[in-house]
Amino acid sequence: MKTIKSELKLCHSCMEEHVVNTIEVMNQQIFKDIEVDYPAIYEYCSNSDEYFASGDMINKNALAIKDAYRKKVGLLTSSEIIRLREKYGVSQKDLSDILDWGKATITRYENHQVQDRAHDDILRKIDTDPEWFIELLNRANGKLDRKTFDRYIQTANEHYHKQLNHYLITSIQAIYAKFNEKDFTGNVDLNLGKVVEVINYLAQRIRNLHKVKLMKLLWYSDMLNFKRYGHSITGLAYCALPMGAVPEGHEQIMMLDGVSYDTNLYCDNVAYKFRPTPGFTVKLLSGDELEVINKVISVCGNLSTQQIIDKMHDEEAYKHTSSNCVISYSLAAELSIE
User: Fold this and answer.
1) Tell me: the pLDDT tens digits for 121-148?
2) What is the mean pLDDT of the chain?
3) Chain-centre distance of CA 289, in angstroms?
4) 263 has pLDDT over 90
5) Could you write out the three-class secondary structure of the chain?
6) Residues 134, 66: Cα–Cα separation, whole Å
7) Residue 270 in this model has a pLDDT that exceeds 90
8) Per the confidence metrics, is the pTM higher than 0.85?
9) How far is the first Cα of the chain from the last one, in angstroms, to the nearest whole number?
10) What is the pLDDT of residue 130?
11) Which pLDDT does position 241 carry in this prediction?
């Protein structure tokens, strides 16, 4: 028995005024042929050694029984349904309308009715799959006023992008898990926060920064920093491809939250032009690292894509690395930039 609160009041058990304790006790009950343990709340009268439950307590205890049952059979509890609904900022009625279930269905699930397995599966998918919830919202567009619909879509998109960024980070980390030798990552662990900052910093200072040129500028920045200080800036590993060095996982890196670009179609090829993300400020890069990047910009910033490819092909590190193999940072000593 746990005392939740004590207050001087008229006791409903003995009908005298005294300090009445509100307590929580663990009870057992059979619900849908399953025995469950649940926390029940009562008022306890020490004079008569009796328990009393108000109307509100009866309702809460009934919900506690059903939530204990839900936990035991693997269904979302009432509070978990409330949490996922509030995650998207959706009202009970609107969520019922979006799912085409009936206007009071979600209200019942949050207050007194246990959902069936099929509805539980749908609610779980909404919680874990914001993209699918966006599809449901678009289907229900006509049922919601425009302002409400736009608010729900915006919130769902925010959750979708957070989830997408998490998956991207996980996939990039999986790629880099194979690099046990620090020589391939410049004696530091991969720092995706710095990767995003370097990309934005370069995009702020170089007009028409396209993908191929960006990849080379990242390599030069990391190699020059290694040459000067014995470690790279970002921890990126670079593969020697025909057009020059390219970071491992570059396709996922381009899609990271905080990396912005525009796409254009040229002769059936997609060109990526990088731009600084609005509100970007340097937070992680040190003064020495910024000095290194600025040096790379001063040497390579005005080169065309082909010129920077040709320059890289002349680098000893590139020439001494087999095609499609990872470039060793130990070769930075021969880098053409001082």
Assistant:
1) 999 999 999 999 999 999 998 899 999 9
2) 94
3) 28
4) no
5) CEEEEEEEEECCCCCCEEEEEEEEEEEEEEECCEEEEEEEEEEEECCCCEEECCHHHHHHHHHHHHHHHHHHHCCCCHHHHHHHHHHCCCCHHHHHHHHCCCCCHHHHHHHCCCCCHHHHHHHHHHHHCHHHHHHHHHHCHHHCCHHHHHHHHHHHHHHHHHHHHHHHHHHHHHHHCCCCCHHHCCCCCCCHHHHHHHHHHHHHHCCCEEHHHHHHHHHHHHHHHHHHHCCCCCCCCEEEECCEEEECCHHHHHCCCCCEEEEEEECCEEEEEEECCCCCCCCCCCHHHHHHHHHHHHHHCCCCHHHHHHHHHCCHHHHCCCCCCECCHHHHHHCCCC
6) 30
7) no
8) no
9) 74
10) 93
11) 95
Burial class (CB in 10 A: 0-12, 13-18, 19+), 61: middle
Please give the pLDDT value at position 25: 94
Tokens representing 54 are 């108000």
Mean pLDDT of 106-125: 96
d(CA 152, CA 168): 24
Residues 6+ apart with CB under 8 A from 43: 11, 12, 13, 20, 21, 22, 23, 51, 52, 53, 54, 57
Whether 257 has a pLDDT exceeding 70, the answer reads yes
Tokens 């890196």 locate to 253
Sorted by sequence, the CB contacts under 8 Å of residue 50 that are 6+ apart come out as 13, 14, 44
Q: How far apart are CA 132 and CA 273, in angstroms?
A: 30
CB 258 within 8 A of CB 277: yes
Burial class (CB in 10 A: 0-12, 13-18, 19+), 338: exposed
User: How far apart are the C-alpha atoms of 294 and 292, rounded to whole Å?
Assistant: 5
pLDDT at 116: 95
Query: What amino acid occupies position 6?
Result: S
Burial classification of residue 304, based on how many CB atoms lie within 10 Å of its CB (0-12 exposed, 13-18 middle, 19 or more buried): exposed
